[in-house]
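Lest this sound abstract, we let one protein speak, letters for residues, whole numbers for local backbone shapes, and leave readers to judge:
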Amino acid sequence: MPEWPLVWASWLPLLAALYLCFEIWRGWRRGLVRHGISVVALLTAGGIGWIFAWMTGPISDWVIPLPLPAGRIIFGLIAGLAFYATAVLLASLLFKKTSQQGAGIVRLVYGFGGAFCGLIFGLLVLWGGVSMLRTMRAVAEAGQGTPADVQLMAMKASLEQGLTGQLVERVDIVPSDMYGLITKLIQVTRSPEVTARFLAYPQTQQLLQQPQIMSLFADPAVAKAAEEGDYFSLLTSPKLAEIAADPQIQESFASFPFEKALDYALQYPPPSPSPSP
């Protein structure tokens, strides 16, 4: 008897098609303006959540006693969902649905426009779901081999086979190689010894010894955030944004052999001698 991830994945194309049909039908009923606002709100909700999480960082850390940045992610998710729900509610109150339009060309425009917006909305949801599942599987591959990790890996493996795999590759705009990098990156950061090997890689040392990078680590706020594991503050640091905009730094990161550095760090036993720069 096939395992449930394989059975589930074999039905994915049909389920995806049925979901898209549902969204097209729902878009026809809601109309061009209502469902168009839903699409824009869905695209905007992520940015709203990010900004809200950044603005309420200290408050979320105090209200939600979880390791950083879990509290901020939860606050941001709540803010994004609240924004989306409010936008959809206002659209429903202020604008008519297709059946409320007078018969004729206006109703057809509302219906077909809403159906098109429904298709876009459905594709966005499917893309987000597929990318999230594949990212979770990449994280599971770097995990401890728990039953949940095994199920996620089996689901993702079956998801990428045959016709289903072709559909996933077309829907997901994230390059497949990126998921492998995520797995390796998590494996490197889980072990202090492996992290040290990554930092000792010659090209990594050359990158870290650039004056702009050294000034970043010398910043007290950045050093404090790194010590506390406050990655959200690190990513939103003005100093980091300033350095990231430097053309020289951009060129250095563009030419940095990131995957080779990860592979070097993950070799066991450690390679000897170390590669030359």
